[in-house]
């Protein structure tokens, strides 16, 4: 199963293709959108094309992947992305153009992608967000994920310290399972008592 098309009330979730490079560039060039993401904003379409080839086209060539463009139904034009990695962490990640913030779009898309990977047999997903970006944590909670722990990482390639909160959702009934790789990898780790807003 590789990125099957999914529709919601407002959205079409589908694969990116080469005709979407301009749309992907609009998402990836915005400094505010990319502030909390592990790459620098894209400078031009050529750089965006390399990003597409490495992070999308390569995944579409694999037997199983979940690497979605999120499009509004009225024009099928990508405004966002949501992915679940097939590596051990099964990382759930997303990004959205600023003008579409605060409309529930990522949560709406995230919920159906989470349901798809559950149906396809993934045992769990994880996600991390910068402590200074609690809205990202709200998306994780809206998708049913639970906070597990916080760790400090010297974040690359931007090379500054970040406190990440790690969330997880188990699908196979093993509710006690916690993905511990980040806890074990980084010396400064702890469990926070989060307020409802965080």
Description of the structure:
The chain has about 200 residues and is α+β, with helices and mostly antiparallel strands. About 25% of the residues lie in helices and about 30% in strands. The chain has helices at about 20-30, 45-60, 105-120, 135-140, 180-185, and strands at about 5, 10-15, 65-70, 80-85, 90-95, 125-130, 145-155, 160-170, 190. The strands form two sheets. It has a five-stranded antiparallel sheet with strand order 1-2-3-4-5, with helices on both faces. It has a four-stranded antiparallel sheet with strand order 6-8-7-9. Strand 3 (about 65-70) and strand 4 form a beta hairpin. Helix 1 (about 20-30) crosses helix 2. The chain is globular, with a radius of gyration of 16 Å.
Brief write-up:
The protein is α+β, with helices and mostly antiparallel strands.
Secondary structure blueprint with pairings:
Blueprint: E1 6-7, E2 11-15, H1 21-28, H2 45-60, E3 66-72, E4 78-84, E5 92-96, H3 105-119, E6 124-130, H4 134-142, E7 146-155, E8 160-170, H5 181-185, E9 189-190
Antiparallel strand pairs: 1-2, 2-3, 3-4, 4-5, 6-8, 7-8, 7-9
Helix pairs in contact: 1-2
For the biggest β-sheet, the strand order reads 1-2-3-4-5
Give the uncertain stretches in residue-range form.
none
**What's the alpha carbon Rg, rounded to whole Å?**
16 Å
Q: How many runs of DSSP E, i.e. beta strands?
A: 9
Terminal Cα span: 34 Å
Helix content: 25-40%
**Structural class per helix/strand content?**
alpha+beta
| DSSP strand content | 25-35%
Could you spell the SSE succession in H and E letters?
EEHHEEEHEHEEHE
Shape: globular
